[in-house]
């Protein structure tokens, strides 16, 4: 059993949850959603979707084949598709906190998060850049979290995440490159079942610095990290020129690319296959995945949102939970 969070109720989270339940009800993996039942009924496809409002989340497994199990949480304001309201911020973050509590209690084997709007939550006082950092704090291991995006033909892991490009360059350190790479290697073994992961390291600058003529971070930050990793027995290829490391031939030679900043990692991943990409949080004592897309306020309520990334996120969370449990 997995727990799915509500996400921003003005986005597509409700309609894709309903569509995902229809696709998975007979095969699994089973999930419950922590959301307002009245809101779910109002979402596209919700009027004819059977809901089972739970009085105890442990009831969800027995119900899943016949109805979408809902662990109720109340919205403060009626949700309007495409028009987010920060009055609903406590329910949005409350849904995430309750999913984590269910995982910590062993009621669910992992959590899957529907998309949130960082701007809407932060306007209401939310102190975190995104789920990834919030989950690190909820698990009481802030700074241990690492964000991976995994697709059918590429896995990417940015070292700097939710910050401006200027700040990414200013805050990139050898220590962070080492931490993120180590965590990625461990997750590829434990969570993805890859016995000997092959890792590629991106440069930061054009041509990976062109021997110092187009930037020096490769020699001052990235290569020292690679040497330290090699001393630990973690071999990494690079620093690779970022413009050619995502070609089909290059991708065939590694299991994950360590990237220096958010868009260096996420542009190739989402361009190659946004519909099947999954966001995975590594480094925590918690299984968490998410669809790779956002709230899609522009199409919310129209019944045209694809549930495929959410279905892939549910399947990957289930796989990781099983891999962790068999390794334990
Ligand atoms: N995991 C998360 O919580 C998460 C991830 C990414 C973005 N966001 C948030 O989402 C908000 C909107 O971000 P954005 O506009 O950059 O990205 P987005 O992914 O919401 O939308 C980008 C484009 O893709 C389309 N799209 C997205 N998901 C789709 C789906 N399932 N089916 C069909 N079309 C889909 C949208 O309609 C839009 O045209 C931002 O506030 C951002 O913070 C949240
Ligand atoms: N950085 C992610 C993306 O652009 O797809 C996204 O914002 C999700 O981040 P969290 O999972 O930390 O909310």
UniProtKB/TrEMBL annotation:
EC number: 1.1.1.262
Residue stretches in coiled coil: none
Organism: Lichenicoccus roseus
Subunit structure, as described in the record: Homodimer.
Binding site for substrate: 131-132, 270, 279, 288
Protein localization: Cytoplasm
Molecular function terms, GO-annotated: 4-hydroxythreonine-4-phosphate dehydrogenase activity; cobalt ion binding; magnesium ion binding; NAD binding; zinc ion binding
Keywords assigned: Cobalt, Cytoplasm, Magnesium, Metal-binding, NAD, NADP, Oxidoreductase, Pyridoxine biosynthesis, Zinc
Main location: cytoplasm
Pathway: Cofactor biosynthesis; pyridoxine 5'-phosphate biosynthesis; pyridoxine 5'-phosphate from D-erythrose 4-phosphate: step 4/5
General remark: The active site is located at the dimer interface.
Family: Belongs to the PdxA family.
Necessary cofactors: Zn(2+); Mg(2+); Co(2+)
Catalytic activities: 4-(phosphooxy)-L-threonine + NAD(+) = 3-amino-2-oxopropyl phosphate + CO2 + NADH
Record-listed a divalent metal cation binding positions: 162, 207, 262
Name of this chain's protein: 4-hydroxythreonine-4-phosphate dehydrogenase
A single BP term in Gene Ontology: pyridoxal phosphate biosynthetic process
Keyword Nucleus annotated: no
One Pfam family cited in the UniProt record for this chain: PdxA
